[in-house]
Amino acid sequence: MALKLTSYYRGKDIPELPGNNIFHSKDLFLLYEAASGYTPLMIVASEEGKIVGKLLSVLRKQTLLLPTFLGKRCEIYGIGEYPEENVNKEAVFGEMLEHLTNEALRHSFAIEFRNLENALDGYKHFRVNRYFAINWLRVRNSLHDIDKVEDRFNASRYRQLKKGIKSGAEVCEATTSEEIQEFSRMLHKIYSSRMRKYFPSSQFFKLIDQWLISKDLAKIYIVKYKGKIIGGSACLFSGENAYLWFSGAMRKTYALQYPGILAVWAALKDAKKRNYRHLEFTDVGLPFQKHGYRNFVLHFGGKQSSTRRWFRIRWDFINNIIRKFYS
């Protein structure tokens, strides 16, 4: 029986879907749908009435001052989720990728597949659909083979952690909408473009609380000093892994409290407590580029490895030139 592909642009039309990958879930679709500046697209593959694959992408507006036709890009985490064990994942992904590429390029100027579990995932089908790959880096901390997350910290990082706590800084989960909004304002104020070129609106974090935290699919951790939020981090939970989505701190103003270190420590500690096998940092940069955030997180004992990000540009002549350069 032929594979059937269905595109969903509205959350109310999406049926309940099997699987536990947060990056290809209806829950994340609903968050994107409610957030301003985002347009989610879910492609569901079915065979003989069974859902055999799903691929969630999101079109988001650029923050740069670009012409309208350059104002959106499409992003996808990983290469989808495949709930049925006996399905040919490569073949299903190939058909979903072709369908997504045709759909997304009508509304965006670029498509980016990021945070692939394996550098070779989807390689054949990306090439067939004229994507080009750029080498990237990933950093993840293994949590399943240690007693305490601090066991892998280097000596300097461990001393800073102890000093931060001793100075009076407090670490906890954000439990009120007021704390989440203050956390969001703090991040907007201090976030560095060197760490991430794009940062969502304050409304986005409120929606994380509404759509994900309420279902225990995400958590926001905050660092307080004398009642003021001076640092924090946001984590997503998916399958056996936790993902540090955002983190930041007022590290210059409150240097003696080490809020950036405490924010990452809170995420690692809670992920370990919840029995997740790994915590992965979602954006640590290019391998040939100095990246302060990557150097910072490596001191928590994580391992660095190589992966790829795949890109496709809307205009064929530009896409072909870049493909030759990265071939």
Describe the structure in your own words.
- The protein has 327 residues and is an alpha+beta fold.
- Helix content is 31%, strand content 29%.
- It contains 9 helices and 12 strands.
- The chain has helices at residues 26-34, 89-104, 123-128, 155-166, 177-190, 202-211, 259-273, 292-298, 316-326; strands at residues 4-8, 38-47, 50-61, 72-77, 110-114, 132-142, 170-173, 218-225, 228-238, 241-249, 278-281, 303-313.
- A 12-stranded mixed beta sheet has the order 1-2-3-4-5-12-6-11-10-9-8-7, with helices on both faces.
- β4, α2 (89-104) and β5 form a beta-alpha-beta unit.
- α5 runs antiparallel to α6 (202-211).
- The chain starts with a strand and ends with a helix.
- The mean pLDDT is 89.
List the helices and strands and how they pair.
Layout (H helix, E strand, L loop, with lengths): L3 E5 L17 H9 L3 E10 L2 E12 L10 E6 L11 H16 L5 E5 L8 H6 L3 E11 L12 H12 L3 E4 L3 H14 L11 H10 L6 E8 L2 E11 L2 E9 L9 H15 L4 E4 L10 H7 L4 E11 L2 H11 L1
Parallel strand pairs: 4-5, 10-11
Antiparallel strand pairs: 1-2, 2-3, 3-4, 5-12, 6-11, 6-12, 7-8, 8-9, 9-10
Helix pairs in contact: 1-6, 4-7, 5-6
